Amino acid sequence: MTFKDEKDEGEGEGGEVGEETAQAMLTSVEEMLEGYEWASGDLLGGAGGSTTDQIEARLLDELMALEKANIHSFIESDDRVNIVLKYLDDAITELDGLDSVISSYKIHLNAVSDDITFIQSQDRGLQVQTQNQRALLTELEELLQTVQVDRDALLVLTQESLEKGVERLEEAATQLYKALQAGRDRDMAATMERLEEYRTYNSQFCKRLYDFLSIMCTAQGGDEDNDGFGNATPTGTTGRAAAGVRRAGTIVRSPLEARRERKEQAFMLVLERIAPMVYSEEEFIADFLQINDAALTFADYMGLENYFRRQAARSAGLSSATLKLVRGAMDLIFGFLPAELKIWLDAALAKDQLHIIGMVVCLERFLNDAEERGNAFFIGLLEKQHARLKGLFERRVGEHIKSVEETKLTSKKRNGVAPFIKYFPTYVSRVETQLIGSDTLEIRQIVDVSYDKIVQAMFAALKQMAKMDGEGEDKGQLNYHVILIENMHHFVAEMSQLDIGSVAAFLQKAQAIYDESLNAYVKIVLRRPFSKIIDYFEGVERLLKTTAPTEISSNGTYSKSALKKVVKEYNSKDIRKNVDALFKRVEKHFDEASEKATSEEVSSSTGIAPGTVLVGVWKACEEELLRITELFGKRITQCYASTAVTLEYNSGDVEAAFKRHRVAS
Fold first, then answer.
1. Confidence at residue 254, expressed as pLDDT on a 0 to 100 scale
2. Confidence band (pLDDT; 50, 70, 90) for 555?
3. How big, in percent rounded to 5, are the helix, strand and coil portions of the chain?
4. pLDDT computed for residue 239 by the predictor
5. Mean pLDDT of the chain
6. Domain of 302?
7. From which residue to which does any coiled coil extend (predicted)?
8. d(CA 217, CA 93)
9. Cα–Cα distance measured from residue 198 to residue 180, given in angstroms and rounded to the nearest whole number
C-alpha cells in the first residue's frame, strides 16, 4: 500500500468519526426538541416565539445546575472549606455574646444616669457654696477686725469733754456702737471676748451724757426764767401744745349762740383745732425717741456698713415699754382732753339731742383720718366718745319707739293724723341735713336701721289704734280705714318730698297701706246708698260662676222683674241725691284730716291723687261708682239681652253728680 492510499484511508476514517459526532449531537438536539414537542421540521420551519422562550429558560436552568454541580464538586474536593465555616460559626456565637453583654451594660447605665446627673448638680452646688463660704469667711474676718474697740476710743468715751470733743466722741461712740450691734448677733457675740466690757462702757457713757444734758437743760431753763419768759408762756413743744389745747378748750366752752352756728359745725371746728396738736405732739415724741419708721438710725447717720444698718433697723422696732412710754407722755400732755370733750358734748346735747347725729359724723370722719395716720392716742380718744354717742342715739331711738307705742288713739274717736306721723318727716329732714356727704360712714347704716325700726313701730301702732272690730259696715271698721287713710296720705305726701333713698322702702309700704285702706273704705261708703243694686249684681256675679249667662233670667231671685225693680230705684235723680248724701258723709269723715296736699310730681310717682286727702278719697269714690256702673251695664247686656231692660242712669249722670261737689285741691 502506498502512502497515498494510507492517506486516503486515514481521511476516510476521520470523516467517519466527524460524521458520527455530528450525528450524535443532532440526535441530542432532536431529543431535547422532542421534549419541547418540536419536530425538526418545526425547528427548521421557524416555530412560534413562545417555544423559543421555553428553550431559553431550559438552557438557563441546565446552566445553573451545571454551575452548582461544579461548585459542589470543588468544595467537596477542598477540606479547608469546612474549617472556614466552623470559624465563621464560632465568630457569630461570640458576637451574640458580646451583644447581650453590651445590652446589659446599657441597662445599667440607664439605671445610674439619674444618679450621675444628681452628682453633677451637687458638684456645681458645692462649688458655689464653697465660693460663698470663702467670701463669707473673708467678710467675717473683716467684721471681727471692725468690732474690736481700741483702748483709746474707750478712754475718749470716759474722759473727753462732752461740750468740746463732740467729733472725737462721735468716732469713739461709732466704734462702740458697731461692737454692740454685732453683739446682738448670737454667733458674733460668741466670738467677742470683751462684749460685757463694752456694755459696761456703754452704760457709763450713757449715764455721763444723761447727767450732762440734765444739767444743761436745767441751766437753760433757769436762764429763761430769769429773762421773764417762763411765767408768760409754757416752755417747750409739750408746753406750747398743752397751752394751745387749753385755749381751744376755752373756745369750746364759750357760748356759740351768738355765732348762730349748728352744734355739729362747732364740734367740727373743735376737732380741727385739737387734731393737729395731737398729731404734731406724737410726731415730735416719735422723732425725739427715734421710733418712727422713717427715722434715721445712728448707723445710717454715721454711714456704717450694711450689716450694722440692718442690725440697727432690726432693733429699732417698737417694744411694749416704748409704746407705754409714748402713751404715758400723750396722757400727761392731753390728759384733760377726754373729760373736757365729754363735758362739751353733754352740754351741746342737753340743748338739742337731735344734733347727736352730726356729732357722730364728725367723730367718724376724724376717726378715719386718725386711723390713716396710725395715731393710737387720738383713735382711743375718739372711739370712746363715738361709742358713747352711738349708745345715746340708740337709747334715743328706743325712747321714740316707746313713745309711739304708748300713743293712745281709738277707732271710736278720730283725731286726724297721729302726732308721730306728723313729726316723723320733720325728724327725718333734720337728721338728713346732718348726714350730707356721709354715705360711706357707719352712722349712715345706723340711721337707716333706726328709720326702719321707727317706721315699723309707727305702722304697727296705727293698726293697733285703728284695730278693726267685726265685719260688715261697722262704725269701728269704717273708722279703722279712715285713720289709716289720713295717716298714710300725710306720710306719703310729706316723705315723697324728701329725696332720700333709704326711705323708699317704707314709703312704698305706706302707699300700699293707703291703697288697700282706700279701696276698702270706698266699697263700704258706697254700699249704704247703693246697697240694693250692688247686692243684686254681686249675686249675679256669684251665679255666673255656675250658671250660663242666658239662664240667669230664669232664676227666680234674679228674674227680669227683679231686675226692673232694682233698676227703677236708681235713676239720674236718685244718683244725684245719693251722691249728695255720700259727699256729706265722706266730708264728715275727713273734716279733721291734715290739709297737707300731694303735688302733681308726687302723684305721678306714687299714684295718689294730687291734693288733700279728701280730694283723693272723693276721686276714688267717683272712679269706683263709674266702674261698677259700667260693670252693671255689661252684666245686663250679657245676661238680660232679650229683656230690653237697661239702667236708668249712665256714667254722665255719675260724673255730673260728683262734679257738683268737686273739692278744691
1. 43
2. confident
3. 80, 0, 20
4. 42
5. 79
6. 236-373
7. 159-186
8. 109
9. 7
Task: Examine the domain organization and report whether 158 and 265 are in the same domain.
Answer: no
Q: For residue 221, what pLDDT is reported?
A: 65
Cell numbers 328709720: residue: 451
pLDDT at residue 417 is higher than 90: no
Q: Which residues contact 57 (CB under 8 A, 6 or more apart)?
A: none
Helix (H, G, I), strand (E, B) or coil at 644: coil
The residue behind cell 467670701 is 135
CA 96/CA 361 separation, integer angstroms? 98
- Asked if residue 68 is part of any domain, the answer here is no
The count of domains in the chain is 4
pLDDT single digits (tens) 124-156: 888 888 888 888 888 777 666 666 787 888 888
| 309, 435: one domain | no
Beta-ladder partners of 598? 611
Q: Which residues in 393-421 are b (16+ Cβ under 10 Å) and which e?
A: beebbeebbeebeeeebebeebebbbebb
Cβ(518)–Cβ(616) under 8 Å? yes
Residue 181: pLDDT over 70 = yes
Residue 187 sits in the same domain as residue 298 = no
Whether 169 and 306 share a structural domain? no
pLDDT mean over 10-35:
67
CA geometry: angle 257, 262, 265, nearest 5 deg: 120
What residue type is 542 in one-letter code? Answer: R
Task: Please write the tens of the pLDDT for every residue from 182-234.
Answer: 776 665 555 566 778 888 888 888 888 888 888 887 887 666 555 443 344 44
Cα gap 288→440, rounded to integer Å: 37
Mean pLDDT of the region 594-608: 51
Residues 499 and 287: their CA atoms lie apart, in Å, by: 50
pLDDT at 627: 94
At 214 the three-state DSSP class reads helix
Spatial separation of the C-alpha atoms in residues 525 and 522, rounded to whole Å: 5
Quick one: pLDDT at residue 578? 92
Under a CB-based contact definition with an 8 Å cutoff, are residues 652 and 612 in contact?
no
Between CA 453 and CA 435 the distance in angstroms is 19
Q: Which of 354, 355, 385 is nearest to 367 (CA)?
A: 385
Q: Is the pLDDT of residue 496 over 60?
A: yes
Instruction: Tell me if 358 sits within 8 A of 264, measured CB to CB.
Output: yes
For 458-494, what is each residue's pLDDT tens digit?
988 888 876 644 444 467 778 888 889 999 999 998 8
Closest Cα partner for 343 from 245, 265, 249?
249
- The torsion angle over the Cα atoms of residues 567, 569, 574 and 580, rounded to 10 degrees, is -100
Q: Do 500 and 602 fall into the same domain? A: yes
- Give yes or no for residue 517 having a pLDDT over 50: yes
Following DSSP, what letter does each residue of 603-634 receive, concatenated? HHHH-PPSB-HHHHHHHHHHHHHHHHHHHHHH
| Burial of residue 518, with CB atoms counted within 10 A of its CB: 0-12 exposed, 13-18 middle, 19 or more buried | buried
Q: Are the beta carbons of 419 and 407 closer than 8 angstroms?
A: yes
> Where do we find the cell 469667711?
137
Residue 383 lies inside a defined structural domain of this protein: no
- Alpha carbon distance 424, 494 (integer Å): 9
For residue 230, being part of any structural domain is answered with no
If asked whether residues 430 and 344 sit together in one domain, one would say no
Q: Which residues pair with 417 in a beta bridge?
A: none
What are the grid coordinates assigned to 408, written together? 293712745
Answer yes or no: do 414 and 292 share one domain. Answer: no
